[in-house]
Recover the amino acids of this structure.
């Protein structure tokens, strides 16, 4: 969902990684980090907050390296913090990841039983442990990654390095974009073109379930069975401003076209097509608690309020629970009657809408339960609510809401 950069070449990788992360900043993110080889060891530096903070913390060290990977994170699992920031590490394996691993809980349970010790709350960390597990069985990095990915369900773009293979980056993707940049004796990986546009315009665009193995000698592309593939080189003619918008005229247009992907990410891992089972990990209300609800208030501001209007139709039509919609700024002042057994559903993209948060605090004092539908993991609304449903639509730059709105509607369809 957020940003990946990687570099292997003759120049110092550190400023290239930092500049790459800075050029991905427009996408929005909550933390950042890099990993790089120094004296045959991999070192990791990460922090919650801005790339600028990461830069100033490592700036004093005068680091030199010719190979590294970096990441800006938009949290989906685990709050924004230094421990949850990427890159993640297990043994000698270090990983940056964009996307969502649907079956991470099950994998984590199994890996813990086998003695793996986890240090973050992310879904990503299972990937390093799995790759580490197969690395310990003697497989090279690309084969260990292939074996690991056989067990993984979900969306990923990955940059992977391993301490005993200091001249290699493995990059692989499924349902999350990843590209390889080809310079003069130097190579890049990135989730987005702007990350390396100032160094090269020649790129290979990885298709789903393709893997790039990148060394100082060049780039080889394989499928996940290890069969080599031919890949054409595309020359990017976009200006940096066009590249930021993925070739679209406006961010809003780009986000409109992102809706199918955003909706997939809202549903991902929460609904099984096989048995119709619904599993919303961060939703903490029990079935019995849900059954006791006989009144629902949907409270929001702006576009989220429009999503609430649609939500009322869905809830009354299908769940047959009486529902009211309110604008947050008015709800507080109209002295509403909130019967016992009410559920207040607050909807806020950012999770920081002041009027909406004020409502949720006030209704909790009246004994109502609060469900927050929001897009930002660890936001105030999510922390203050009894239960939360994250829409996972990724950062939205357009001021007029598009994919955030659509995914709010999808979120509500889970509560029918
Ligand atoms: N799911 C991962 C996490 O929460 C990756 C998020 C991203 O794509 O930035 O750390």
């Amino acid at each position: 969902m957020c940003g990946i950069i990687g570099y292997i070449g003759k120049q110092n990788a550190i400023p290239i990684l930092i500049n790459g992360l800075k050029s991905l900043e427009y996408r929005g993110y909550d933390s950042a980090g890099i990993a790089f080889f120094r004296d045959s060891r991999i070192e990791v530096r990460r922090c919650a907050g801005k790339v600028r903070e990461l830069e100033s913390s490592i700036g004093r060290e005068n680091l030199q390296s010719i190979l590294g990977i970096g990441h800006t994170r938009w949290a989906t699992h685990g709050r924004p913090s230094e421990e949850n920031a990427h890159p993640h590490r297990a043994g000698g394996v270090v990983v940056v990841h964009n996307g969502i691993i649907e079956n991470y809980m099950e994998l984590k349970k199994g890996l813990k039983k086998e003695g793996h010790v986890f240090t973050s709350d992310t879904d990503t960390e299972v990937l390093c442990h799995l790759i580490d597990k197969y690395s310990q069985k003697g497989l090279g990095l690309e084969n260990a990654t292939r074996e690991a990915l056989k067990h993984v369900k979900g969306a990923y773009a990955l940059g992977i390095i391993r301490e005993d293979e200091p001249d290699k980056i493995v990059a692989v993707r499924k349902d999350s974009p990843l590209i390889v940049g080809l310079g003069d004796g130097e190579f890049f990986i990135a989730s987005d073109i702007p990350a390396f546009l100032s160094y090269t315009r020649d790129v290979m665009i990885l298709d789903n379930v393709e893997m790039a193995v990148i060394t100082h000698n060049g780039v080889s592309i394989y499928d996940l069975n290890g069969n080599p593939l031919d890949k054409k080189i595309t020359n990017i003619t976009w200006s940096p401003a066009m590249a930021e918008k993925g070739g679209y005229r406006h961010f809003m247009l780009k986000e409109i076209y992102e809706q199918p992907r955003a909706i997939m990410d809202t549903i991902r891992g929460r609904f099984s097509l096989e048995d119709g089972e619904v599993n919303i990990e961060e939703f903490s209300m029990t079935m019995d608690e849900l059954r006791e609800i006989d009144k629902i208030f949907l409270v929001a501001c702006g576009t989220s309020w429009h999503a609430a209007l649609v939500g009322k139709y869905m809830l009354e039509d299908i769940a047959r629970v009486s529902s009211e919609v309110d604008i947050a700024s008015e709800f507080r002042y109209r002295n509403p009657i909130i019967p016992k057994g009410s559920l207040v559903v607050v909807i806020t993209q950012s999770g920081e809408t002041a009027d909406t948060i004020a409502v949720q605090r006030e209704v909790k004092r009246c004994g109502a339960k609060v469900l927050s539908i929001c897009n930002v993991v660890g936001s105030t609304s999510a922390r203050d609510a009894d239960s939360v449903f994250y829409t996972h639509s990724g950062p939205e730059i357009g001021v007029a809401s598009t994919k955030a709105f659509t995914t709010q509607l999808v979120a509500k369809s889970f509560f029918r």
About this structure: The chain is about 30% helix and 30% strand. The longest helix spans residues 302-319. The longest strand covers residues 165-174. Residues 1-2, 73-78, 97-100, 122-124 surround glutamic acid (CB under 6 Å).
